[in-house]
């Protein structure tokens, strides 16, 4: 029979093992962050580090590494103990609020029109789901019919994997003289299947509002709005505007794009950043000066739409919405994402992710461990 002391010993050993594993993962994450942003992990001001750990111990129940607070201190010239460190965001906070086991289904771009009431989005030419082809109304197509639709398309299209997020695997698709071209290179239809697999979508390349296009007209510059369900109310945490560079059609940071924050009034910030935290006062390709701030057309309507759409999703409390704006100033839904970089969000917005909700959010996460 197991004695209480031996049971307690095994429990303590398990707890210690979990703590060692967590510390190893944190050290690795800190090292990767330091390399990415060109920071010294030990460079945080001692007094500021003590304030950070006092706050996080009090509300979160654990100490945190001050690397990311150092990042915001250096790049934004702003100190706030409530900034959320990247490691804690990815490892505990975001998974607490989002049921990531359901993410593969919800992020499928081919299904967005099935579980969301979307009024305006890019026109869909074809869908491929589980190796089968469908039209925009989810009616079956033969492979040859799907191929012919692409050949007959008179306007540029966007092709992308339907089960990826945050701008992965997006390409320009065009038809010229009966041949398909991906990013300007002739590509047989069968190669689309080989590259994109059993799940992808082809949609029209939208025309965007000239104000949104101005900093970099070659890319579809998108507005990302982050919404948060908290105590039965959906809040808008922040918004950012993303731009491509070097003539690319992509605007996401992972492909070299840059981003800037949008304030509560829908006006863009005067500084943009890239994924390494480098600041830009001028667009590196077009020369557009970010001091010429853009007021997002119909920004309140855009936020209302994000809240309305989030009310239709129940297993994810933190959702990132990607929109464009039509030339008529109408919101165009592009895609929904269930993960996102706290670094990107906080750099762009210049403020802690959860703002004045941070104390209670951290307390809730802490209490979930009991």
UniProtKB/TrEMBL annotation:
One Pfam family, short name: ATPgrasp_ST
Protein name: Alpha-L-glutamate ligase-related protein ATP-grasp domain-containing protein
Organism: Solemya pervernicosa gill symbiont
Top-rank taxon, per record: Bacteria
Domain called Alpha-L-glutamate ligase-related protein ATP-grasp: residue spans: 157-357
InterPro entries: RimK-rel_E_lig_ATP-grasp
């Amino acid at each position: 029979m197991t004695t209480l002391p031996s049971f307690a010993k095994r429990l303590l050993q398990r707890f210690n093992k979990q703590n060692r594993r967590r510390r190893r993962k944190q050290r690795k994450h800190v090292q990767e962050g330091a390399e990415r942003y060109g920071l010294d992990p030990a460079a945080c001001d001692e007094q500021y580090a003590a304030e950070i750990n006092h706050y996080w111990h009090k509300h979160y129940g654990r100490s945190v590494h001050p690397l990311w607070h150092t990042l915001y201190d250096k790049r934004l010239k702003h100190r706030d103990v409530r900034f959320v460190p990247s490691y804690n965001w990815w490892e505990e906070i975001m998974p607490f609020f989002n049921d990531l086991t359901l993410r593969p289904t919800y992020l499928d771009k081919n299904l967005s029109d099935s579980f969301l009431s979307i009024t305006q989005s890019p026109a869909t030419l074809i869908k491929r789901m589980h190796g089968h082809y469908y039209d925009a109304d989810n009616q079956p197509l033969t492979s040859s019919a799907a191929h012919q639709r692409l050949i007959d398309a008179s306007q540029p299209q966007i092709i992308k994997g339907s089960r990826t997020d945050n701008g992965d695997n997006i390409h320009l698709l065009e038809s010229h003289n009966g041949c398909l071209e991906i990013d300007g290179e002739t590509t047989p239809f069968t190669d689309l299947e080989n590259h994109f697999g059993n799940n992808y979508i082809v949609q029209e390349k939208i025309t965007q509002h000239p104000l949104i296009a101005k900093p970099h007209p070659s890319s579809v510059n998108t507005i990302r709005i982050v919404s948060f369900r908290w105590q039965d109310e959906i809040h808008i945490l922040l918004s950012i505007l993303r731009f491509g560079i070097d003539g690319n059609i992509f605007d996401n940071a992972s492909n070299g794009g840059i981003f800037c924050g949008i304030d509560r009034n829908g006006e863009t910030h005067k500084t943009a950043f890239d994924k390494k935290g480098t600041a830009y006062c001028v667009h590196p390709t077009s020369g557009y000066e970010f001091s010429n701030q853009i007021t997002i057309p119909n920004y309140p309507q855009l936020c209302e739409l994000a809240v309305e759409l989030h009310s239709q999703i129940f297993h994810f409390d933190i959702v990132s919405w990607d929109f464009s704006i039509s030339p008529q100033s109408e919101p165009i839904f592009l895609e929904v994402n269930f993960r996102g970089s706290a670094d990107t969000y906080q750099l762009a917005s210049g403020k802690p992710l959860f703002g004045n909700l941070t104390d209670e959010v951290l307390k809730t996460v802490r209490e979930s461990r009991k």
